[in-house]
Design goal:
The chain is an all-alpha fold. About 80% of the residues lie in helices and about 0% in strands. The protein has a single domain, classed as Helix Hairpins (Orthogonal Bundle). Helix 1 runs antiparallel to helix 2 and helix 2 runs antiparallel to helix 3.
């Protein structure tokens, strides 16, 4: 039991650190590419948390199936966000989020 707690506290610290880095990246930046990177960091933190929880509870197969599903959703989100960023860049010649005000209907 003590080994599990040490594993949880070590990996838990790094998961929280990764989540905070992703949230900070989303809050501070104005670039769409950096925002996409922040979203990816958040998703990676959640993925690691699910893997850790599956290992702690002994339900590794369930955790693996959830992680595979999250990876598939993550790829779809990244491709869609990159497509939107590319479209915004073609219209505004900038990836700054503040330039999106000019695209109003």
């Amino acid at each position: 039991m003590n080994g599990n707690w040490q594993l949880f506290s070590t990996f838990g610290f790094f998961i929280v650190l990764l989540f905070v880095c992703g949230a900070y990246c989303l809050v501070v930046t104005r670039s769409m590419i950096r925002a996409i990177i922040g979203i990816e960091l958040l998703i990676k933190a959640v993925t690691l948390l699910i893997i850790l929880a599956g290992n702690m509870t002994g339900q590794v197969a369930l955790a693996q199936s959830l992680v595979i599903t999250i990876i598939i959703v993550e790829v779809v989100i990244a491709a869609t966000a990159a497509g939107i960023a590319l479209s915004v860049f073609r219209h505004t010649d900038s990836l700054d989020v503040r330039s999106l005000k000019n695209l109003k209907g």
